[in-house]
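User: Here's a chain of 107 residues. Predict its fold as tokens.
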Amino acid sequence: MSEIQKSAIVFILLSVLILAVSAYAEDNSCRIMAGPQDDVWVIIYDADNDGNPGPIIWKGKIEAGKSIPITSTDGNIRIDYTMDPNQAYDGALQSGCYGQQTVLVDY
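Assistant: Prediction complete.
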């Protein structure tokens, strides 16, 4: 194998590695998980860097110990939540949403 062929192979392998790392870094997806004891009702918003809510990404019930996948626009989300669907949403948290991480919603 000539030096040119070896250099071409190394270049291709490095290019693939860089593309894979960039795709992972730009992956604005995560899972929202309810705590192990209680169901939780959530409203998940895209958010700015300060946690101010934007458009709703998802709204509904997550069963205890279960999770749902979501994708945010830029990696920031806000979650309003309650354990009682007949009461106002009394909890709120801001989180990053990227790299397939899991965000736990629990009291």
